[in-house]
């Protein structure tokens, strides 16, 4: 990213006012993954000012969830808000949570796919998938696919505009492909000195490709991916001293607050539909995102979709 790009993004961030941009959300049901901290919590707080009919958020820690609910209620005492406890390292847990939502809710207008991890040591999920790819991509794909009947039913209701907003990152540029055949091979995912970042890049590229493929296969649902900016959140906790220093040295002049970090996804969720290209990737705020050969590879997007379907089919 050159300094002109930085200027454009900083100017766009400073001029975007979340409170005046979000419309009335009366009658809407909205789901936020990773809502117990960081961008997820801030998204919930921003939304509750506009009185959605129902807010649902996922997370693992019920104590943290209780604290978030208290903050929401301090803004809007009448807000219907539900914590859906869920472990994104387990597709069984994700599936059970999604099926419960599908059974209990009559509509679902927006999903913010916000939960994620970054630059973690080599590991696998409970389903044996490389952990960053498993949490950042496969778990969200399982959630979306399980909720797809509810999303599609909502599109048939009057005056609806159903959207899925997936949080990607410029970290996708670490990846020039996705080695799908290695995602269950923990030893094969070592990749040396920059391995953590390469594995993160695979997951963030997958977020983009899956969003675009969802838009292609289900065009009645608006599906986009966004880069939130470089946000100083809990995402960088526990990534190790070298990685922390790497982030600070390469991004210190363009780091934003959590309040600014949600603006990209808020824009994508509520901008007028005609100003949004279904399946596209956006940088803050509403700027057409950078494209690489891999991120525009339709064949790779199709292969990712089919591979993911096989991973999650038993849970749908």
Automatic annotation (TrEMBL):
* UniProt key word Ion transport: no
Pfam families reported for this sequence: adh_short
UniProt KW Membrane keyword: no
Keyword set, alphabetical order: Oxidoreductase
Q: Which domain of life is it from?
A: Eukaryota
Q: What GO MF annotations does this protein's record show? A: oxidoreductase activity
Tell me the protein family, please: Belongs to the short-chain dehydrogenases/reductases (SDR) family.
Q: What is this protein called?
A: Oxidoreductase
Q: Which organism is it from?
A: Lophiostoma macrostomum CBS 122681
Q: What is the lineage of its organism?
A: Eukaryota, Fungi, Dikarya, Ascomycota, Pezizomycotina
